[in-house]
Structure formats: C-alpha cells, structure tokens
Amino acid sequence: MKVARDLTSLRAELAGLGPLALVPTMGALHDGHLSLLAAARREAPVVAASIFVNPLQFGPNEDLSRYPRQEAVDLEMLAAAGCDIAWLPGLEVMYPPGAATTVEVGGAAEGWEGTIRPGHFRGVATVCTKLFHQTGAACAVFGEKDWQQLQVIRQVVRDLDMPVRIIGCPTVREGDGLAMSSRNRFLGAAERARAAALPDAMRTAIAAMAGGVEAAAALDTARASIVAAGLVPDYLALVEPETLRQNPALPGRLIAAARLGGVRLLDNMAVPARTR
To answer: 169, 194, 229 — which closes off a domain?
Structure first.
C-alpha cells in the first residue's frame, strides 16, 4: 500500500492507474469502514482511502480535539484490507494558508443535523469536493449510518456536475444492533449497555407502523422508550429518504439522534410500506 501525504506524492502514485474508488474517512477505523473498502474493491480496480479529521465540519463546542486518532493502527488495517493508496493530507495541505472557498449547501442539508450543527454540512461538502478532485475518483463509497450526510453528498455531486458515482452501503452494526461508530469507544460500560435502546426502539416503531399504527403514535412510544433507557433524543422522525423532509407517509426513512453521556448516537432505518 502506498501512503501519500501531499498532493505531489498523491498525483505521482495515481499516475497511470485505472479507475479509482475512494473511501473517505476520518480515521479511527472499525469493521464498518472495512466493509466500505470491500465494497469499493467491487467497484473499481484501484481502491484509495483518505484519513483526514476535517475541522470545518466541527462546531466550536464539539469534539474535534478529542476525536479518536490512531494513524498507525489505521494504516495497518487499510493495508490488511487490500487498500492500494492511503491519502493522509495534513491540515496545511487540505486548507493552505489563504484558502477562502467553501461549498454552501441547502436542500437535504437543511434541518436535523444541519440545524443542530450549523455549518457542519458546509464542512462535509467542502472536504468531499476537494477529495473527489484530488483523487480523481470514479466513485466514492459511504456508509448509510450518516444518512443525511449521504444525501447531502449526492446532492452536491449532482448539483456541481461532478463525474463521481456515490455508493451507499448498509450500516454495519454491533451484535446488539448498535450502529458502529468511531465515537462508540467513548461510551462507558453502563452507557454502552443502554445504547442499544436506540435501535431497539426504532425497530419496534417500524414494526408498529408497518402493521398499521399511525406514525405519530409509534414515534411517541419510541421516544418514551429511548428516554426511559437514559438517552436524550435530539430527534426521531419519519422523513422522505432523499429530501429529508418530514413526512408521515410510508415508505420512508426513520432518522434518529440521541445523546448518551458525552456521545451523540446517530442511526436510521428504512421504513417499508404498511402490510395491512
């Protein structure tokens, strides 16, 4: 596996290679990331992964300084997974002195995480746009866990006419159903035991809605379950999958965010049409 840390090195490694599939990450890799690398390998003959903790997508009171970093371990995992190129730009490479251009997004970026984390999707859109141009990726692979982020990236690519296919892969979960996340390592033992209440409540709500219970009632019950488990929900909503507009009609997407200790848990699940 080749490792590049500046654009000159990256372009030298990319020269003459075939179509490339990119897996953008912020490091602290886990099995969910490895599943994205496997999907990328199915899409293109060359696989690259980026590791860059992007300050533009963190708010002033968020966890940029304590976001987990484990570069040596991450590089070993990428190499073992068959990654061809690891792209590890420093802050001065990604945002050189005097850089003043960002990508503003509306549409799918409005509401939910866009409201709770002002500027977050501007940072996501900007860094992904740069990564796509830097690597010349033919496709990029993202997990569905950050559902709103995935729709925002698809919108940016569509709106800016970028020749990049965006591929979403199913959320990888722990044995108890909790969506894998780099931040899960910050959960204490007691908190980790309660964290599965979020996906449990979501699955129960989806089953109720599919069986004929009205969405509002099913979601009220789910919120009560989440709160009873000691989580503080930021939102739990049934939305249109692509636009993220709130809509009680089925099928749809159930999106959720809840706080547990110092960790925010994000999750989402497909909601099928009613069976009766």
So the answer is: 169
